[in-house]
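dumping this here before i forget
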Amino acid sequence: MLFDDPDFQETIASVLVPVAVPGAYTYKVPPGRSVVPGTIVKVPLGPREVIGAVWDIEPDAAINPNKLKTISRIYDTTTPLDRDLRRFVDWVANWTLGAPGMVLRMVLRSEEALEPEAPVPGVRRVEGAEPDRSTAARQRVLATMEDGFAWTKSGLAHAAGVSPSVVDGLIHQNVLEVVSMPAAPPPPKPEIDYAQTSLTPAQEKAVDGLLACFDRAGGSVSLIDGVTGSGKTEVYFEAIAEALRREKQVLVLLPEIALTEQFLRRFEQRFGVYPAEWHSEITVKNRARVWRGAASGDVRVVIGARSALFLPFRELGLIIVDEEHDAAFKQDDRLPYSARDMAVVRGHISKFPVVLASATPSVESRVNAETGRYELFELPERASGADLPELQAIDMRMDGPERGHWLAPRLVHAVKDAFAAGEQSLLFLNRRGYAPLTLCRTCGHRFQCPHCSAWLVEHRFQKKLVCHHCGHFEPVPQTCPSCQSADSLVACGPGVERIAEEVSDLFPQARTLVLSSDIAGGPERLKREMKIVEEGGADIVIGTQLVAKGHNFPKLKLVGVIDADLGLAHGDPRAAEKTFQLLAQVTGRAGRVTGGGKGFLQTYNPDHPVIAALLSSDKHAFYAAEIEARRAAGLPPFGRLAAVIVSGPDRTFAEGFARALARAAPHDQAVTLLGPAEAALAMVRGRYRFRLLAMAPRQFDLQSYLRQWLASGPKPTKGLRVQVDIDPQQFL
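structure:
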């Protein structure tokens, strides 16, 4: 691993660096310095320097140290990555067929965290010193500092109600002196018994089962399957309390940033403090603090997106995956991995409990629970005692709206009744923007993204046509670019903005709010608006899938789904499951506290098994049928899938390479190879895409087969890229 060669009197070490190569590089350790496996270092790599970590791989004893580059920096103040985390990195790389260095990159993504936080400049009162002239503002500053503590300049000015120039004047007169204040203190630890929650018998049974899992030597995985509003969060809060009682750190994974704010408040109500946050919207400074706090053990609970799974926790002892069915836990770019599945792996490696929670579990998790791989805890009733919402289908073939409108008369009447009664309504459509397609009524020209095989979506609020795949946008033109006709452009189909326009016409007195991820203002605005809904500040909410999971809107009584068939039209083997989950989640927002909730599903196919299962509230029947269909087709979890996606700037060359790759596939009777076929999204960001799909039995070593295949097949050139996606969740 690491050794001293008496012949060369040099110490060498294997260092894993964040590049797409299959293994570690070998470097010399600076004279007089030492490293251990997991030590974080900076090393030269070509013309640049990169952050890496000393790894477990044995350096080649035949290497002459004199020919090696030297580690340029050793981060002595940073705790080395522990053995379990290094094993986890290797496991993820092996499973995904990715480079270990690219997995390590997710661990070392905060370079700022490797440096101790710089002291904060502050000011302190000089004992006995007085200003040459006393003013009311100066006196307020001095009165504020009577406690004798140091203050930051901005904090002191704000507390005293003066401008910073007043503080600067006192510094100039030597009444205040500039001092270095220590960096931010460690965050306060959660109080285990801060607030006790009264639990239902079903919740108490689930809690008892979860607590028993902590005493299992090899770790365990539990699934909390509870209806919407059943109190799953309160149940796993008790598991968090137990982990904290055992002096372990906790990670809670959430699929959406939008869920964070409400969760933070609920956590604070239970434990007296906020947990640390980890997601793409936190500042660089806070990201570094959380990373350091996780590594040192000062941060006890982290709530985060999927990337939080790669934080270097010092003593991690519990992972919660909330809304475990959510597709957002699957990363499709760069290194495709499922955070839910990898959370289970991390728990297995370190032998601690992992808890999955959902009102609509994935079929895979449900099968694992039924076969005994996971512990199953069911919460069949709402914690408030309220009934589940009454669901009705609106057959759009018979009772659809008039031309140019999108809300059926029955749904409009129900919203009117709810508004008159002072109740909230939610209209759900999983389609952002104003309209999914804009065309010219004169010549038929359709506005398409120049970089993707996708139509541009009109965002009328922003006066833009936007591609939702690459981000390309352009202003809405006044004339058709093809035939130059004026005022000939027409929006086709509805998005949430168009539904909001119709609602505004129908209910001009109602307080209307649109919740969508692309509304100007970003996550902060979304948090504010979620709170507005929660507090009853909106009468009618129009939202996308953001509102379909995890939120508790106490005043919401009515949910209307505008296009219940939308998700069933895709060529996706999980289409039925995803649609059922989405619609069950969104309709489950209604009547969570006081009951009396109603849901309406606008559909052109009311007899579809998914719609029928929702209307009957027979979740178990749906899962039984879906599981049997998967079993018969040999699809996950009863079989294995792997997608191989070939992409490149030249369509003909990419297709030819994909065909050559298919011909090079090793023959194995256990493997069925489909394709290559042009992807449903044939071009994304200027790259043409072709897909191959490998199917195999559950016990088959698909990764070894793929490695052999890719090693013996043609090598990508001319800008081609080959990506492997184990257990693909989307087929676009």
